[in-house]
Amino acid sequence: MMSPKGPQSGGFSRLEDDALLRGRGRFVDDIALPGMLHAAFVRSPHAHARLLGIDAEAARLLPGVHAVYTYADLRPLMTGDRIGLALPSGYLRFHVDPYPLVKDEACYVGEPIAVVIACSRHVAEDGANLVEVELEPLPAVVDIDAGVQDEAAKARLDCPGNVVARTQLRYGDAEAAFADAPCVIRERFRLHKGGGHSIEGRGLIASFDAASDLLTAWNSTQMPHRCRTILSDMLGLAEHQIRVVAPDVGGGFGPKAVFHPEELVIAAAALLLGAPVKWIEDRFESFLAAVGERDQSWEIEVALEADGRLRGVRGVVRHDHGACTPYGLAIPYNSATNLINTYMLPAIDVDVVWCLTNMVPTSSTRGAGRPQGTFVIERMLDLAARRLGLDRAEIRRRNLIPAARMPYSVPIRMRDGSSMTYDSGDYPQCQARAMAEADWDGFAARRAASAAAGRLRGIGIGNYVELTGRGPFESVTVRIGPSGKVMVATGATSQGQSTQTTLARIVADILRVDIGRVHVSCGDTATSPLGVGAFASRQTVTAGNSATEAARHVAKKALEIASVLMEASVEDLELDGGAVRLKGVPQMKRELGELARAVNGSIGFPLPGGIAAGLFASSDFQVQGTPFANGCHVAEVEVDPATCQVEIKRYTVVHDCGTVLNPTVVDGQVIGGVVHGIGAALYEWMRFDAAGQPLTVTYADYLLPSADVVPRIAVHHLQSPSPLNPLGVKGAGEGGTIGAPAAIASAVEHALEGLGVTIRDLPITPSRLSAAIQAGGRTLRALRLPGDGGEARHG
Amino acid sequence: MAGRLGMVEMGAIAVTVNGVLRAAEVETRVHLADFLRHGLGLTGTHLGCEHGVCGACTVLVDGVSVRSCLMLAVQCQGRRVETVEGLAAADGTLHALQAALGAHHGLQCGYCTPGVLMTLVELQRELGGRPATEAEIRDRLSGHLCRCTGYQGMVDAALQVLGAPDDVPKTA
């Protein structure tokens, strides 16, 4: 990973980049092992069907095919029928963990039924085409509002109903809040959020080495340690018999945090065949069988005072859980907690319902449900502003939690038993700054100019919070060897977030060495026995603080060793330039490598000064609470009245993730996040027909934002250090995505003001906008376009 | 289905890859990306969609950008292929576009980067010294899907190398 020539001199540089720029990265599919075989899966063509039989004889006879495995073939290797994936939760009403391969009931299109292992991927796919699967179609559940009804078809025959989990998010007296409220807004929303769509799909190579009794999986995963635990549980192997390595990973965005059935199947195949087996997900499989987010249906009411202050929120969110539980239940719960957002909300009573459906299981993608909850409350504030005749920014300002009330607790219990607490931040300043940076006051002139060109211009605003830095810990070991190189091993993983550079910079600064001397090993269970991984914008908070603690211990120890060797007191020594030096006499020094050699021991001789062996330290910094990042987005759009195409003209972000360690890296995270949010707002829609057949399985049908439709995004930072960790940092990975759909919807609706349009659905497509304008019943002629900008008022 | 009955058709090709003549026997159904990656071990060219939209597999064939997932290896008989591995100078010095992408944080996971680079190299040659506008660069990059960067660092890097001197991006 390290550049042979060192990072580029001057300005911004990352340890990761040299290899990646030269085409010398090492992604899973770049690895080739001797004797390696290739896998292709046979998948269900039906959303719901009973499996009656599998005839794999023709496939097995195909030259080059080594094996075809079904559920029955793999079951003897497994410790149980199903892969235990569901995180513990009191809300779960019944367990619907996936099977490694379909046992007797296929529950979504793309569910793996059998695997063909062959000498090449081509032959494996030829073989897969020869596997005859007999299926009896069953009624499919595809709509969540219908699916939760008692008379609905069952998405899984072994479950008593489709409501797989249910809970309430509740505090305060919502009933009283609504009883005599001067203003109540009621709305329904249908919100879609798409998949992760890392440009590298999933994939792994599993290889069993009998000589060392070790199963190794090179896996494109965000959570190698969790993968190891699940493989260990399911295959009955001990941890020392399994190594999981996440090499270069081409993006994650959530789905790669989930253990998918294919990972277990490929590992089992490698054990059965005694040969390395590779499976690389193709894009079609990714659309069918990789987890992502999908639909939420909201019925929501907000009660307000006449002056716009919030009294309470109540309603229900129904969430499309898909056909099984691949991970946790976080998505709609996060959505519901983000209704509170940056505001003083006295009461909430929201029913959260998870509905089983016959579609690929859902799990978090960037933002993890928070963009939807944020969208709902921000939309409701826009609608309330319209109803009450208030400016949209002003109604928000009246509800924002003042900086003086930080830390601000909400009576909602978190997983660790504590109350949900916003640890720091200045939300009013954040909004004011965003409006100033976006030149909110100058909007009227820009609207007039757009109108003169025949276009409808709108400006929108959205505030958001993001829970980041989820614990319990991340593991970091810092070790210096006789070579003088600094080895950092961590359970944190990297899918593009600059994890290596961030941790190397922290360690290099503390040890006062050139960053080029630091090597960071991420995501390898062999170099870091403990680890958690990448999700919930957590790694700078957890691993960053662990790296700080570990490096400080190593620095202290280096001084102590040097103190003995140089016969000087620790106070007279300092670290600089890769050595411990005598203050004021820098040529009197001991290189770090020499110090490491001294405590690595010399046979038979005691270690100097009775110091413990080895120049290393580990830290598993345990986070207390969760730092909340926040931000405010201002979006400015033009709508073409002829095509209803939305073009984003200006985009401003003010982001507060506490202490910013590397502004360029943070900007990169925020901008990438915003563009993911632009996708959710305007483009991305994974569609299914009434029978549960996926309809959008290419990038010609499922649209991702591209460079020509994405605006230049201006990012500004506030820095409210988190009091919860020594670095004062908060996560920055997802906030960009959380604020974007709300701000864009606000802007689009504003562009169409006067046409009776309310934005209720995501994504906001041209055909939906066109329908909304028609339903509004007012013609575009009412807009006096082009040329008349006199009505360019905003609020 | 060529492979169904084991009747795999093979073809012999001679193709110049990054200046080196390579002769090989390939299955006729193998696309150029798989040939480069698994036949020649040039794994810098990546596959993102295998249906010609994401642009990750972009290489230059006879100087023109192609999706190497949509072209068969046998179609490259006698042609000249350029990939990301050929961009740096013989002494290891990065191409200006490679260096600029790094300096502007125009890559994060790095998976789409090789294809992006080949497209920008093609644009650079077409421009022949004329400065490119941001709109032109964005239009050209619209053939590449990147999920990490939001494209901004990429655009800034391209502007630094291909734009007018006064188009100095702020992250430079």
List the secondary-structure elements of chain B in sequence, H or E: EEHEEEHHHH
- Mean pLDDT of chain B, to the nearest integer, reads 94
CA radius of gyration of chain B is 17 Å
Strand-residue proportion of chain B: 15-25%
Q: State the share of residues found in helices of chain B, binned by percent.
A: 25-40%
Report the helical percentage of chain A: 25-40%
Q: In the CATH scheme, what's the topology name of the domain at 400-468 and 626-795 in chain A?
A: Aldehyde Oxidoreductase, domain 4
Mean pLDDT of chain A: 94
* Rough outline of chain A: globular
N/C terminus separation of chain A:
51 Å
Largest sheet of chain B: 5 strands, mixed
Strand order of the largest sheet of chain B: 2-1-5-3-4
Enumerate how many helices of chain A there are, as a single number: 20
Poorly predicted residue ranges of chain A: 1-9, 787-795
Give the strand order, joined by hyphens, for the main sheet of chain A. Answer: 3-5-1-12-9-10-11
By CATH's scheme, which homologous superfamily of the largest domain in chain B applies?
Beta-grasp domain
Number of strands of chain B: 5
Short recap of the structure:
With 795 residues, chain A is α+β, with helices and mostly antiparallel strands.
Please give the structural blueprint.
The complex is a heterodimer of chains A (about 800) and B (about 170).
Chain A: H1 17-21, E1 37-43, E2 49-55, H2 57-61, E3 65-69, H3 71-74, E4 105-106, E5 112-118, H4 121-130, E6 132-137, H5 144-147, E7 163-171, H6 174-179, E8 183-192, E9 203-209, E10 214-219, H7 224-235, E11 242-245, H8 261-273, E12 277-280, H9 283-289, E13 295-304, E14 310-322, H10 330-337, E15 348-356, H11 370-388, H12 392-399, E16 408-413, E17 419-422, H13 427-437, H14 443-452, E18 456-467, E19 476-480, E20 486-490, H15 499-511, E21 518-522, H16 539-566, E22 573-576, E23 579-582, E24 585-591, H17 592-600, E25 615-619, E26 628-639, E27 646-656, H18 663-683, E28 713-718, H19 735-751, E29 761-762, H20 766-776
Parallel strand pairs in A: 1-12, 8-29, 10-11, 14-15, 20-21, 27-28
Antiparallel strand pairs in A: 1-5, 2-4, 2-6, 3-5, 7-15, 8-13, 9-10, 9-12, 13-14, 16-17, 18-26, 19-20, 19-25, 22-23, 23-24, 26-27
Helix pairs in contact in A: 7-8, 10-11, 11-12, 11-19, 15-16, 16-17, 18-19
Chain B: E1 10-17, E2 20-27, H1 32-39, E3 58-61, E4 64-67, E5 80-82, H2 96-103, H3 113-127, H4 134-141, H5 152-162
Parallel strand pairs in B: 1-5
Antiparallel strand pairs in B: 1-2, 3-4, 3-5
Helix pairs in contact in B: 2-5, 4-5
